[in-house]
Amino acid sequence: MKVLVMNCGSSSLKYQLIDMENESVLAKGICERIGADGSVLTHKPTGKDKYVVEQAMPDHGVAVQLVLDALQDKEHGVIESADEITAIGHRVLHAGTIYSDATLVTEDVKKVVRDCFDLGPLHNPANLIGIEACEKAMPGKPNVAVFDTAFGMNIPKKAAMYAIPYEYYEKYSIRRYGFHGTSHMFVSGETVKLLGKEDAKVIVCHIGNGASISASIGGKCVDTSMGLTPLEGLVMGTRSGDVDPAVLQFICNHEDISVDEMLNILNKKSGLLGISGVSSDFRDVRQAAVDGNERAQLAMDTYKYRVAKYIGSYTAAMNGVDAITFTAGVGENAPDLRKDICDYLGYLGVELDEEKNENVHGETTVISTPESKVKVIVLPTNEELAIARETAKLV
Ligand code: ADP
């Protein structure tokens, strides 16, 4: 069975074609600048040269067709016909309280994705466009929606509730949902396998441009740091993470800006970028800090401190922890960040094998010493494979 995985953003489309027989990637790629000048498809067939197509992509429909053409291309393709694709798995951000598991796309499912536009204004519209473009380009093929909220949807109600009047939960389903669910599900599941302990208590630190942290027992999520939207929790590239809501009112009043403008600032101009004033990219901010930029150093310190604080609270929530696993762009590739965070965790009996840690860049490795009371692990996330597995299960 071959599954095409689609991850549509507002102006981009990432894809992977995965052969489920051996879970190998046949090809992957990205369409960028959809709907803008300079659209480009970069197609990477496994074992063949990269293939770049610079062609106008006025909408996602055109982009999907170009992807299918590339996959079937005589020279750069990996399949002879689109008939070889069994199903398409789509990453979808938000399904409110309606779906907590991956589901076959129907008109009702599309309605739910549409009804959640205001909960995921950047992602849900693009996700729906991607689904509809695939339905049109490959009529009759099953499409599966895999929701980013799915893993966090099943946390206990005490962890999901905001302590605000209950009527808002009843009326609008205002609660904590959590995001990066596919990644947390995959990485916590793989950690449980690696530990060989079915009821393992695991904390997954997904630290990329977006960042979130989850606590799970036996692969079942018990708490996660993102909330109603992906703004809550850790300090991120451009997102603030936790703030006192009164900050919004204060700044709106003093700067004469609207709540929408303020949310835009919290989403796009805060985090590492906001504190450092340098960049949202971890590597740039780290370099600036090394070069003596004090705000960049402060941004780094705040970023790591927040992770350490969450690890402490999730250890309390689970009454213990067996493993702390780092994943995503920064988590997999930044030994300095992992060390600085582990330096806060001596009280848990965490002992890092510093030499091992220094040399791990994205390979699954235990980086704690054999004596460490808690295992510290680096484990690359693979959201596409997780989406493909969920899709294969349903079809
Ligand atoms: P997202 O999927 O949320 O866009 P990623 O998981 O790709 O993000 O992570 C992007 C982040 O990873 C950036 O801040 C980037 O600086 C960081 N990153 C990527 N490679 C490295 C590396 N080798 N060392 C340190 N940080 C890295």
TrEMBL record:
One of its GO terms (molecular function) is acetate kinase activity. Substrate binds at residue 91. Gene3D superfamilies: 3.30.420.40. Keywords: ATP-binding, Cytoplasm, Kinase, Magnesium, Metal-binding, Nucleotide-binding, Transferase. PROSITE patterns: ACETATE_KINASE_1 (PS01075), ACETATE_KINASE_2 (PS01076). Its main location: cytoplasm. Its cofactor is Mg(2+); Mn(2+). It comes from the Bacteria. The record marks 180, 239 as: Transition state stabilizer. Mg(2+). Can also accept Mn(2+). The keyword Transferase applies. The active site is at 148 (proton donor/acceptor). Its EC number is 2.7.2.1. Catalyzes the formation of acetyl phosphate from acetate and ATP. Can also catalyze the reverse reaction. Homodimer. This is Acetate kinase. It comes from Dorea longicatena. The lineage of its organism: Bacteria, Bacillati, Bacillota, Clostridia, Lachnospirales.
